[in-house]
What we know:
Blueprint: H1 10-24, H2 33-46, H3 52-60, H4 65-75, H5 87-98, E1 106-110, H6 117-129, E2 134-140, H7 143-151, E3 153-155, H8 164-170, E4 171-173, E5 181-184, H9 186-189, E6 192-196, E7 209-214, H10 223-236, E8 237-245, E9 258-262, E10 265-268
Parallel strand pairs: 1-2, 1-7, 2-6, 7-8
Antiparallel strand pairs: 3-5, 4-5, 8-10, 9-10
Helix pairs in contact: 5-6
The structure holds S-adenosylmethionine.
The site of S-adenosylmethionine (SAM) has 23 residues, from loops.
Amino acid sequence: MTxxxxxxxxxxxxxxxxxxxxxxxxxxxxxxKTLLNNRLSxxxxxxxxxxxxxxxxxxxxxGESHELEMALELITTNxxxxxxxxxxxxxxxxxxxxxxxxxxxxxxxxxxxxTGEEPYTIAMILSESCSSPWELVASDVNEKVLEHAYKxxxxxxxxxxxxxxxxDKYFLHGxxxxxxxxxxxxxxxxxxxxxxxxxxxxxxxxxxFDAIFIRNVMIYFxxxxxxxxxxxxxxxxxxxxxxxxxxxxxxxxxxxxxxxRCPAVYQYGV
Length: 270
Ligand SMILES: C[S@@+](CC[C@H](N)C(=O)[O-])C[C@H]1O[C@@H](n2cnc3c(N)ncnc32)[C@H](O)[C@@H]1O
């Protein structure tokens, strides 16, 4: 029991597992039953549900789509930080150096942007090293994290990956109740276009990108789902464009058009 709510039974867990996978692609293996219990029990109490079956009926009701969103937000993992997997940003830097003189707009999509640390890291690199105009789209399925990303306010103990020079240039220090917080400068903030995009749905209308960051999200998908997502990604990447995945993810066997250029970086169609 957590918050007086009985632990989900196997059959209750199965119903949630199916709904979560249909809605987000995220596959919750059976050992994640405790995670489901821990993350949702409090919400069940808030919505006066006595058990997981009652709450399931609520989130399955088409008039309660907001509640389903909230449940999915509670279940998904949003961990992220500035300059996570820093070799990727060295690689991006090198790509930008090599295209010096190219005047075409360089388009980047950060496809599981979470609370914004990843797209703002990319924006800093683009701002430093991209000699042509550039565009950066950042998306996530979770509206709450997107709101956080849009506000761009972070605790100052979460910035260990950021160099002092970038701290000075791209962060403002808070005062008063924001004393231990920083905010991304407006100049950088306004360069990022935030969108809600569910990777389970068709996103091919977003146009073609030179680089797509889709890191630390496919790890939650089953292989079949990963393949479908990457098929759609392949329609959004320009020839010779780069796809960055998390270091514990791999596109091996997903699509032979993706060639590995360095760990967790793939180039499309060369
Ligand atoms: C662990 S975070 C990774 C954040 C960032 N990419 C990084 O590597 O630091 C995973 C993110 O994927 C998002 N996500 C999960 N399922 C998704 C889906 N179907 N479509 C889009 N985003 C999704 C979650 O909301 C969460 O913000």
